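Thread: Newbie trying to understand structure tokens

Hi all, I'm a second-year student working on a class project, and my supervisor (Dr. K.) asked me to get a predicted structure for one chain before our next meeting. I've only ever worked with sequences, so writing a 3D structure as a token string is new to me. If someone could post the tokens and maybe explain what I'm looking at, I'd be very grateful. Here's the chain:
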Amino acid sequence: MALPRLIVITDWALGRERVLAAVDAALSVSAEVAVQHRHPEATGRQFLEEARAVRAVVARHPGRRWFVNGRLDVALLVEADLHLPASAPLAAEVRPLLPAGRLVSAAVHSEAEARAAAGADLALVGPVFPPGSKPEDARAPLGLEGLAALRAVLPCPAFALGGVRAENAGPLGRAAVIGAVMGAADPAAATAALLAALCSAPG
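---
Reply by user tm_fold:
Sure, no problem. This is what the structure looks like when written as tokens:
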């Protein structure tokens, strides 16, 4: 199953209109771009309503993958792939509950979490660089060496997360971003620049 090269994660603090416009712009760039609906502050009903709004945008771009963060029930309701935070059930436990063909991604910040990602199709590994969209994240950045070390342990492809920009994305191969696209004045141009940088590395 083909994986995207870039995953754009939503930042609903920017407002609904801006988020949906950024998702639309990013997905318009390439089929190698996917989106993840993330909104940890939302109530269950709000999260589902936002997921349905994202699904409507994704539907304009056939063949694009999209993920729901942390909510198996919502992923099933909106027919999305599923991202599992580090505190969530393991991918191997969740996989039997998903229809065939759905992707599962796992959050990984340590060697133990990398080994626990068995059964996932991909892992979001970070923070690789100091994260601009999560200033409260006190974890030390992994750097390129730390990313390489976790990649060596992971049973699935790794997407670098945390502080990724077009200027530093070249060595990464695959990445997930929030502010680099969501906060950009031109999300399509920002996505294209990131994708070009990522595609310059094997991935």
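A couple of things are worth pointing out once you decode it. The chain has one domain: 6-198. The chain has a mean pLDDT of 95. Feel free to ask follow-ups in this thread.
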